[in-house]
């Protein structure tokens, strides 16, 4: 799990995500730990079939659903809007 030091660095990681590199775990000082999962629109495989093939992905998705159900989830837009320069200092 890597520490993200700026919103630009986060965007660089997101831009480099693809079907082979589709899960990113990171922490932001002062905000917490995050797991970002890329879901490509043109991918013919379902998330469920990918999770069945990858136990680590299955665990992370289950954890994510539990956190969302407990009111601990947010959209990418909400995350980016909540960040300021002071979070990276």
Protein traits:
alpha+beta; 89 residues; 3 strands; 4 helices; 3-stranded mixed sheet
Summarize the topology:
Elements: E1 2-3, H1 7-15, E2 23-28, E3 32-37, H2 47-53, H3 55-69, H4 76-82
Parallel strand pairs: 1-2
Antiparallel strand pairs: 2-3
Question: Could you provide a short overview of the structure?
Answer:
The protein has 89 residues and is of the alpha+beta class. It is built from 4 helices and 3 strands.
Helical fraction: 40-55%
> Average pLDDT across residues?
84
Count the strands?
3
Rough shape?
A: globular
Which blocks of ≥5 consecutive residues have pLDDT under 50? none
What portion of the residues fall into strands of 2 or more residues?
15-25%
Describe the structure.
The chain has 89 residues and is α+β, with helices and mostly antiparallel strands. The chain contains four helices and three strands. Strands 1-2-3 form a three-stranded mixed β-sheet, with helices on one face. The two termini are 19 Å apart. The mean pLDDT is 84.
């Amino acid at each position: 799990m890597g520490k993200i030091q700026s919103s630009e660095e986060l965007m660089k990681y997101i831009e480099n995500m693809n079907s082979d590199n589709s899960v990113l775990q990171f922490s932001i000082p002062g905000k917490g730990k995050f797991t970002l999962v890329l879901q490509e629109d043109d991918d013919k495989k379902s998330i469920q079939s990918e999770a069945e093939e990858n136990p680590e992905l299955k665990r992370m998705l289950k954890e994510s659903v539990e956190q969302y159900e407990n009111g601990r989830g947010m959209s990418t837009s909400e995350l980016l809007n909540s960040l300021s320069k002071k979070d990276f200092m």
